[in-house]
Design a protein that fits this description.
Elements lengths: L2 H30 L3 H5 L2 E9 L2 E4 H15 L3 E13 L4 E13 L4 E13 L6 E14 L12
Parallel strand pairs: 1-6
Antiparallel strand pairs: 1-2, 3-4, 4-5, 5-6
Length: 154
């Protein structure tokens, strides 16, 4: 492999990683609109979604997972993606790990929470798509309950 070939391969990986980063941010903006079809369009047809409520495979199950989540927690949220770490697993598969924060408001309360995303992104086609997404919610609370640590006896 020549130096030019090596450079071209590195540029390709960096471009694919940037497409994956863009998909993450597109997801945050899209999920905040609470419209199922645009969210599902970000997933590969055989994608797997894992969240605190279970494992969902394919567009139909993923759509139902988002509908159920929005029904259970009807607050209007804004998600913020932070510190994405991207790794090229192959020419067109990007692994991503990121933290997220959300704030939201409902009729009678305000909510806040955070957690992590663990993702595999297929960056081969004309649009990057999620192949798998694991959502781990570390905290989800409202402002009245807060998020103080449990008091420890002295």
């Amino acid at each position: 492999m020549t130096d030019l070939d090596t450079l071209a391969a590195r540029v390709h990986r960096l471009e694919q990683m940037e497409r994956a980063r863009g998909l993450l941010h597109e997801y945050a903006a899209t999920v905040d609109r609470r419209e199922v079809e645009p969210v599902v369009a970000l997933f590969h047809r055989d994608a797997v979604l894992r969240n605190p409520r279970g494992t969902f495979t394919g567009g139909t199950e993923i759509a139902e997972a988002f509908r159920a989540a929005w029904e259970i927690e009807p607050s209007l949220k804004q998600h913020f993606v932070a510190t994405p770490k991207l790794t090229a697993e192959s020419d067109d598969t990007i692994a991503a790990a990121a933290r997220f924060l959300f704030v939201g408001r409902a009729r009678e309360r305000s909510v806040i929470g955070w957690g992590t995303y663990d993702l595999r992104v297929d960056a081969a086609g004309s649009h990057a798509l999620f192949r798998s997404m694991k959502i781990t919610v570390e905290l989800s609370t409202d402002l009245d309950a807060g998020w103080a640590l449990d008091p420890t006896p002295v």
